[in-house]
Amino acid sequence: MALKSKADDFLHELMQTEASLEKIARKLELEFAERFSEAGVNPLGLVKRIQKLQLELPELRNECQGLIQRKQDLIDAAKQQLSMNRQRLHQLCMVSGMAPHDDSDVHGAFKQALQDWDAQCVAAQGSEVLAQPSVLNRNELNRALASSMLHKPAL
Length: 155
Fold this sequence. Notes:
By secondary structure, the protein is mainly α. It has helices at residues 2-36, 43-96, 104-125, 127-131, 138-150. Residues 11-77 form a coiled coil. Its main location: nucleus. Residues 8-106 form the Ska2 N-terminal domain.
């Protein structure tokens, strides 16, 4: 019974201490707000904002990586569909006896855009990819590209 009484007293003391600390924290926040209101910058407000951003940053990184993955999936699907369509169009032209339309400039621009994207993915991994190109798959390259884009300093 005495042990339970002591535990209850201890919990009561902890709750009182927590209430006192919260009161002190509110008082300090008000003091900071008053002291720095003339300067226009509240250091406590900045610290809170930085902490909030630190909590939001991992979620934003995940969203960016997901977006880049969806972009890569779209690029892969478009590449496959356009290549199949182009091949089928040439086959139809051959069967019908018509000369195929010369779309080499458009097809070349499309291939160049895909090569540029792949080069960005490779550049994101740097020398690791060049040393061991078969080790990384497309998903790993996408994650690396997203990571490199997130860690670049703002200009």
